[in-house]
What we know:
Largest sheet: 7 strands, mixed
Structural class: alpha/beta
Number of strands: 9
Shape: globular
Helix content: 40-55%
Number of helices: 14
Strand content: 15-25%
Amino acid sequence: MPDRVTQMRKLVDYFxxxxxxxxxxxxxxxxxxxxxAATPDGVTAADLAAAQGLDAEYTRHFLQTGxxxxxxxxxxxxxxxxxxxxxxxxxPEHNSYLGSLAGFHHISGRDFERMPALLKSGGTYTFxxxxxxxxxxxxxxxxxxxxxxxxxxxxxxxxxxxxxxxKVLDLGCGMGGTLxxxxxxxxKAELLGVDVEPRSVERANAxxxxxxxxxxxxxxxxxxxxxxxxxxxxLVTLIQVLHETLPAVRADILAGAARALxxxxxxxxxxxxxxxxxxxxxxxxxxxxxxFIERFWGNELLPLTQxxxxxxxxxxxxxxxxxxxxGLVSVTIxxxxx
Length: 338
């Protein structure tokens, strides 16, 4: 049984976490983390402030706070990012980058202002109702997952070894991050994405054109459950989408995904796995908080066993399920028999 002081410290840590999130967002927005990453041997507070055009005293306090939070190290009078913090906070192209999460948490935190009314009404504020900066923020924070899929998951699947000509369908493609990552990894691939959010589809096609892959990568405005693309694709992906689907249409979406696959084709589902039991929530507080917030959007995170049952009910064979570190998402690999 914890004592009162232990419980007080727990709350203080949560309050500190909020301010630390805002601190990290400031370091990303001002370019301070990028500047520190560019000087791996360290930099003095005065030199950093001068190089970034910032006030020297405020910069010194920024560095000292980062040291207190164990984001920075200090050697003599020279400050540098702590071990592994450069890819995590200063390199958006890296699959492990988490810097965009800080700013997005500030944007998504606006939902808490709506919650008192929603708690009374039982209503929802759907993903599609959110502001443009929220929609764009989701694309940013999921970019690392797209890179992880292209660089770490698909190369391990024997069906795709030595191939660069895949036909891919991305259900719930958003602003096209997964499609772009796959287009770069598979230079002869033909890729199609569908989504119900018009701003996302418009931006996705603009990004494909900007990247010079618009001839073989398309996004279209459509509901995943309405697709009729029989046996055309080597790979169908659902990246952070399954929990966003309404219970009434989940079976239709997965059945459509199964039909869209060629015999032997792969369905890849990346999602956030909800604990199987209430007791398991203590081991998954991040997932619990995500579910609390997204429930007001109308979303429902699913345990791995429920994901597996839904996929198998669509006629697919689930061959693997895992939760890679740091444990924020699960990976399910299924195949169409034949």
